Amino acid sequence: MVVVSISFGNTLASVPDIAEQHLQLVLLEGGKFNNRQGPKLNPDLLISKQVKYEYGFKKETFVDIGLPITTLAASDTFALIPAGPFQMGDTLGEGSNDENPVHTVNLSDFLIGKREVTKALWDEVRAWGIPRGYTDLPVGRGKAPDHPVSGVSWFHVIKWSNAQSEKEGLSPVYRVKGAVMRTGETEPTVNSEANGYRLPTEAEWEKAARGGLIGKRFPWGDTISHSHANYGSYRVYDYDVNTARGYHPGYESGANPYTSPVGSFSPNGYGVYDMTGNVWEWCWDWFGSSYATGVEKDPQGAISGLFRVLRGGSWYDHAFHCRVTNRYWDDPLDRNNGLGFRSARGCQPKTSSHE
User: Fold this and answer.
1) 8 Å CB contact between 78 and 113
2) Integer CA distances (angstroms), 224 to 23, 219, 261, 284, in order
3) What's residue 72's pLDDT?
4) CA atoms within 13 A on the CB side of 85
5) 349 contacts 266 by C-beta, under 8 angstroms
6) Please, are residues 106 and 295 in contact by the beta-carbon 8 Å criterion?
7) pLDDT of residue 296
8) Which residues of the chain have pLDDT under 70?
C-alpha cells in the first residue's frame, strides 16, 4: 500500500494514501520513519507541505501533493464531523421558545472531542501552563481522573484551551488585543486562522450531538433511560422510560458530583460519547433568546450578551434538559460542579501554501 510520510520539524508522520479529504495522520515514535501505523499516538498535528511516497521500503523523491497546512482527521480522541447542512432547533415542537425557529445551518467540517475533557487531562495541561503564564487556571473538580473535570468557568476553559494548544505546539485560538489570552477575564477574540483547541460553537455542538440522525430527541433515538446516559430520572416524561426515578444508581455514591467516567455509555453515530448527561458543556456562543431566521453558514451565536451557552444536561438534570435541542445558559464566571466541556478544532485552511 502507498504510504505518504509528512515531515514537520524533526518529526515524521505517515498516513495511508486514502481517497478522502482528510488524511489520517500517525505520529511515529522517535521521529523515525517506518511504514507501520502507531494508533496509540496523537495524530492531530500541524503538518508541512513536503511529502514523500513510500512503496514498502522503497523511498522515492520528495514531491508536493498540495496538502492543506492543517489537514486534520478523526483520531482516537477526536471525531470528524462532516461538512454540510442540518436542521437546527426543536423539530418535534416540544421544547422551549428559545429552541426556535427551526432553521437550516451549513457547517464546515470540524473535529470535536469524542469525550468530555477529563480531570486528568485538565491537571496535566494546567501543570504545564501555570509556570508559563497561565497563572489563574483553577484546580477544578473531578470525582476521579477519568471523570469529566467540573467546576470550571467559561473563562477558565478558554485559557486552558490556549494552554493545551501551546503545550502541543499549535496556534492558540483566543486572543485579547492581539496577544494570546493566558490570564484574566476580558472577552477574547477568535483567531480564525489558528489550528489550536477551542470550544465548539452551539451549532457545531448540536450537529455533533445528533450523530447524523434527523429529527430525533436524543443522540440515539427518541427515548431515554439510565442505560443510555447519566442523568436524573426524577420527573415524568413519556420519553423517559427508566423504570426507577432518581440519579443514576451506578454513580450515586460518596459526595456529588455523581459523574461517570467519560465514555461509559455507547457513542452516537459520529462516535461521540456523553453528549447527553454527565456534565453541562460550555459552548463558545453568547446566549440569544431565539435563533436567526433563514439559512446560516458557520454561525457564531449572538453578537453580545450576558451569558454563555451550555448544552447537553448533566448528572442531576431530567430528561427534558438532555434533549439534543435543549438550550441553557450561565454566567461565564460561574463554576459549579455540573459544568464541564469538550474541545473542538477546525479543519482549515482549505488552500495550500509551500513551506
Assistant:
1) yes
2) 36, 10, 19, 27
3) 54
4) 8
5) no
6) yes
7) 93
8) 1-74, 348-355
